[in-house]
Every structure is written in structure tokens, then in C-alpha cells.
Amino acid sequence: MTDRTAAVTRETAETDVAVTLDLDGDGEHTVDTGIGFFDHMLAAFAKHGLFDVTVRCDGDLDVDDHHTVEDVGIALGAAFSEAVGEKRGIQRFADRRVPLDEAVASVVVDVSGRAVYEFDGGFSQPTVGGLTSRMAAHFWRTFATHAAVTLHCGVDGENAHHEIEALFKGVGRAVDDATRIDQRRAGETPSTKGDL
Asked: Is 156 part of any domain?
């Protein structure tokens, strides 16, 4: 099987980001964005998706969390797009419902080459740790755009920590399922068009 890894860097006046991704990893992760709860969520994504991930971001957190979260989403999405490559043999579609106590996240993904993001729901508290709750949805919108995937997400619950964590775990599981190699496809692109 082809090596499905990528390394992406992004440097702007607002952030300096470095990301590595291995789609066929073991869930190993090293994450340092300066936002503890966001680090925890990226670790949950890696662990539950069985992706080996490193993320380092030095951002302008003295302004707010927006640039850091968005630019990590850009870099991780770009790394995903590079790592998945021509998408030969992948499952392509997947869906997961993941609970965390009272909260439930629903995730549907199509590794389609088309960037679409829909989010249904909201977060019960405006912040969790140093993360503005709505930035969790914005992160996945940014990821979907730069990964060129269709991603439909929803959350329901009473505790924003649980809602966001269920969302990150759910995306990890769904993306892992969608990128798994199906031996029956024998390296073919999963599309009637022959290309994604």
C-alpha cells in the first residue's frame, strides 16, 4: 500500500503552524496549539481515528483563538488531502454517532473531492477552557474546505465540553472508516466518474 502521510506548514503574520498526518497510524499524537482544550480535542480526533498526528501552532492568542483554530484547520485539511491522494480503494463514505454522557454527535462524511460542510445544533456554553465553543464547528468547516470532503455534523447535549468532544471523536471515527482501504476495490477510485 502507498504511504498515506503528509507534512504541511503554514506561516502568516498571525500564526506559524506545522502539521504531520499518517492516515494509517496507531493514534499517536503530539499537539501544542497554546489552547489546552483544543489540544485535547485534536488528541481525541487522532486517538479515535487511529491517525498519527503532530500539530504545533504558535498563534496570536493575545488577540483570540480564531486564527489559531482556523489555521490549524487549514493545515490539517491540506495534510489530509495530500495524504489521501487519489483515493484509490477507499471506502469513501462513512457515518458515525458518538455519545459522551448526555451529548451525542452525528457525523457523515464523503471523501468526494468536493468541499461541503453542514452543521446542525449548537453548543450549550459559549466557551470551554480557552476555546470559544463555536470555533469547534468553524474548525471542521475549515478542515472540510481544505481537505475537499463533504462533512455533515450535528451535536445535541447539555454540556459544551461533552458536545465538542463527541464531535471530534465522531469525526475521527467517520474519517477513519471512510479512508479505510476496501480490498474488493483493488485500487480503483470509488466513483462512477473514475476520478474524485
From this structure: yes
Q: Radius of gyration of the chain from Cα atoms?
A: 16
CATH number at residue 115: 3.30.230.40
Count how many domains the chain has. Answer: 1
pLDDT tens by residue, 122-139: 999 999 999 999 999 999
Cell of 126: 459559549
Domain that includes residue 19, residue range: 5-185
10 contact partners, CB below 8 Å, separation of at least 6: 16, 17, 71, 74, 75, 78
How many whole angstroms separate alpha carbon 179 and alpha carbon 171?
12
CA dist 22 and 83 (Å) reads 7
Please answer whether residues 21 and 79 qualify as being in contact, where contact means their C-beta atoms are separated by less than 8 angstroms.
yes
Q: Is the pTM of this model over 0.90?
A: yes
Looking up cell 470559544, which residue turns up? 132
**In the numeric block, which cell numbers belong to residue 138?**
468553524
**DSSP classification of residue 98:** E
